Amino acid sequence: MPRLDQIRFSTLDLAPIRDDGSPAQALHNSLALARHVEGLGFERFWVAEHHNMDGIASSATSVLIGYLAAGTSRIRVGAGGVMLSNHSPLVIAEQFGTLETLYPGRIDLGLGRAPGTDRYTMQALRRNRSSDDDDEFPADVAQVRALLGPPQPNQRVFAIPGTNTRVPLWLLGSSLFSAQLAASMGLPYAFASHFAPLYVHEAIRLYRDQFQPSEALDKPYVMLGVPLYAADSDERAEYLATTAFQRVLALLRSQSRVLRPPIKSMQGVWLPHEQDAVGNFLGMALIGGPRKVRARLEVLLEQTRADELIFTNDMYEPNDRHRAFEIVAQLRSA
């Protein structure tokens, strides 16, 4: 089992918008968090593409990555991820080739298959897609990879900037399909266990068993998304986590997903079946004080042998978010 001090820690942010805030505030908070975790020694800071969601400000993902990279100095910055079904592979290669050109050695490109939105918005984003989008994803990934690689004989289309920048690619997913594709292409694999923990163990097993070495990677590399709600006491953490509970509940009810302040109790807010659904959604969440979070982390590493953990955090107050990452960073160095 890997030890805590051997594991890379990273952050995945959605630039959450508060019920009393604005997108501008959310984006500034995202940069403040990136700077904070950079100071804590985290490996990377990723943002995710979502559209038509009133509580998420990271829709223009590559633009936000440029803002974050400009405001930090060391930490890797990237997409966790870009939903490739929404975009032309050439455009993504140009965007991330430009980012890599401006911030060499600091840009990651995680690619996802889902649209990250509803079907109406997906049509508005890219109207020329066929009905067989899933079948196109492996070819689109291969095209992005080629456009970011060295020029080939008889090549007619180039990403400029982009060609030969070799931006590191990751495959993201919450299904067995993405695990098998990442294995066949020899790419690092990030599993979305922060919202879909059901298939995590089977997906990791498939990925490792079927992995084919490539120029990018000689052995499997697994990153897991983990919801983090750490505080100085168990009671404080459970209180702060009610913001996340409310947000997932709003998702299940198709309601506004803006961040809401924590509440003393969820009793009377959710129905029993909704409580179970939220619990399943956040099945891998770390909720508690330092001792409880450490115990949960050690079990998680024993069960998955993950190479890296990428933490999500939807606490309402920026100071509470910062403190949660301080706590987990201290556990790694203890």
What would you say this structure looks like, in words?
- The chain is α/β, with parallel strands linked by helices and 334 residues long.
- The chain has one domain: Luciferase-like domain (TIM Barrel, Alpha-Beta Barrel).
- It has twelve helices and nine strands.
- Helix 6 packs parallel to helix 7.
- The model has no long low-confidence stretch (mean pLDDT 93).
List its salient traits.
alpha/beta, TIM Barrel, 334 residues, 8-stranded parallel beta barrel, single chain
Q: Which structural class fits the helix and strand makeup?
A: alpha/beta
User: How far from one another are the termini?
Assistant: 17 Å
Largest sheet: 8 strands, parallel, barrel
Tally of DSSP helical segments: 12
What is the fold-level CATH name, i.e. the topology?
A: TIM Barrel
Strand order, main sheet: write it out.
Answer: 1-2-3-4-5-6-7-9
What shape does the CA trace take?
globular
CATH class: Alpha Beta
> What portion of residues is helical?
40-55%
Mean pLDDT: 93
Low-confidence stretches: none
Strand share of the residues? 5-15%
Radius of gyration, in angstroms, nearest whole number? 19 Å
Q: What's the architecture, going by CATH?
A: Alpha-Beta Barrel
H/E element order: EHEHEHEHHEHEHEHHHEHEH
Count of all domains? 1
Please tally the β strands and state the result: 9
Q: What would CATH call the homologous superfamily?
A: Luciferase-like domain
